[in-house]
TrEMBL record:
Keywords: Disulfide bond, Endoplasmic reticulum, Glycoprotein, Isomerase, Membrane, Redox-active center, Signal, Transmembrane, Transmembrane helix. It comes from the Eukaryota. The gene is TMX3. Coiled coil: none annotated. This is protein disulfide-isomerase.
Length: 448
């Protein structure tokens, strides 16, 4: 009796907690477009009833709503069924599910990170705040350093650091004295890239003593226990430089991070290892990649990211095959290409030779996004989609596969039936087939 009472009490508490969490997530419909105030901050999830990933995200989403309410955040949490609120989904150009976006000053910010509570909360905090956060003291700066693996800091007076550069010479003042002319500013880049990383500003005396700056204003990136500045002469535009430098030199990479790395144009060297308990070979590959990333940063950091990934399922989908774990692979996200070592990689020298071969073209690039590769990918993805379906529900799989074939056969039959007879004249009459020529019978004249 006591056991049954405890079960009932536990069920009641569970339902009460779910209802309490649900109270902090608002269901939105098409009227949201007219009723929303421009100054409101919203983070919204679009879902569909048939989406498995949407159902997996649902409890996390309600936890996010509860936590933001408990800390007094101004961000309101909403969700919308895209199959019902079609106008709202169309307004925000939702194409895949679950889609997560944030609205701030009527500007939409798409979230492309991992569907985890910490990842979404970090995105919410980053976008809802100012694009550039001021660090007014050494204590604040050190606190930010402890929280963030990568920090971009604008250092200088109130003047703006500009984005694009060109030079010209004033011959009547100082010969060969080049003046740098800038367009845009640090704040505008921060407003655009706030979805990816945090941006800060500080005065020179707030920075650690070991940070050397040749001129002000400057943009400095702090990562991997060191710092270096944006160089207007060698680093092209500021936005591209930030996109290249926003990841640590060596890190654990998931599918979302790997996809984001593609925006930089860099190649990615990956050590594929087991998920939990690393074998000796996996540990050797991982340490080897980290060693090269650290010891040869100057030589390869402009061309490569370095990291490790647990498992090979995502890479298997990219290469449309299977890689054994552990393995080494270089991925080119700009064209879905990849490179594999030509032989065993036992030493640091072997790995450096592999990277040099990738850069000089002596290692063949596999995959890509050419026409035949796209056809191959379509066949591969169709197979991957249908195989589990045939395994779990073969009757349904046969029905789905036969349906387009039946439709295609019907269309072909109709086309053949309605095809005009080529033997008909243009006026629609059918000409008579000419009769074979008649042989004239020989005439036998009667001899006189």
């Amino acid at each position: 009796m006591s056991y049954r009472r405890n079960r009932v009490l536990l069920s009641v508490l569970l339902w009460a907690s779910l209802l309490w969490a649900s109270a902090f997530v608002e269901e939105l419909d098409d009227s949201f477009i007219e009723t929303k105030h421009p100054d409101e901050l919203w983070i919204i999830k679009f879902y569909t009833p048939w989406c498995t990933f949407c159902k997996q995200l649902d409890p996390i989403w309600h936890q996010i709503g509860s936590e933001l309410r408990s800390v007094g955040s101004a961000v309101r949490v909403g969700e919308s069924d895209a199959t019902i609120s079609t106008a709202l989904a169309k307004e925000f150009r939702v194409r895949s599910y679950p889609a997560i976006l944030m609205l701030k000053n009527d500007v939409k910010y798409n979230y492309a990170g991992p569907r985890t509570k910490d990842g979404i909360l970090d995105f919410t905090d980053r976008v809802s705040g100012p694009p550039v956060r001021s660090l007014g003291s050494t204590q604040l700066f050190q606190h930010a350093m402890r929280r963030h693996d990568v920090m971009f800091v604008y250092v200088g007076a109130s003047s703006e650091l500009k984005v694009r550069t060109h030079t010209h010479t004033h011959s009547n003042t100082h010969s060969a004295n080049q003046l740098i002319c800038f367009q845009g500013n640090y704040t505008s880049v921060a407003e655009e890239l706030i979805v990816h990383t945090y941006f800060f500003s500080a005065s020179r005396d707030v920075l650690p003593k070991g940070v050397g700056l040749t001129s002000l204003p400057a943009v400095v990136v702090f990562k991997d226990g060191t710092s270096f500045s944006y160089n207007v002469e060698h680093d092209s535009d500021l936005k591209s430089w930030i996109l290249r430098e926003r990841f640590p030199t060596f890190l654990q990479i998931d599918s979302y991070t790997l996809y984001a790395m593609g925006e930089s144009g860099k190649l990615v060297l990956l050590a594929l290892v087991e998920g939990k308990h690393l074998s000796d070979e996996s540990l050797r590959y991982k340490n080897l990649v980290e060693k090269v990333a650290s010891n040869h940063k100057e030589a390869y950091s402009r061309s490569f990211y370095f990291g490790f990934m647990e498992g090979s399922s995502y890479i298997d989908g990219l290469i449309m095959g299977e890689l054994t774990v552990p393995s080494l692979i270089v991925v080119n996200l700009s064209n879905d290409g990849y490179f594999l070592p030509l032989g065993p990689v036992k030493t640091e020298r072997h790995l450096l030779d592999f990277l040099n071969g990738v850069l000089d073209g002596s290692v063949e690039s596999l995959g890509g996004n050419g026409f035949m590769q796209r056809v191959k990918r379509f066949v591969y993805e169709t197979k991957i989609t249908l195989t589990p379906l045939f395994r779990e529900a073969p009757e349904l799989g046969c029905l789905l596969l036969s349906f387009p074939l039946i439709i295609g056969a019907i269309i072909c039959c109709l086309c053949m039936k309605n095809r005009p007879n080529l033997t008909q004249d243009q006026d629609g009459t059918t000409p008579q087939e000419p009769s074979p020529p008649r042989r004239n019978k020989p005439t036998h004249k009667k001899q006189e």
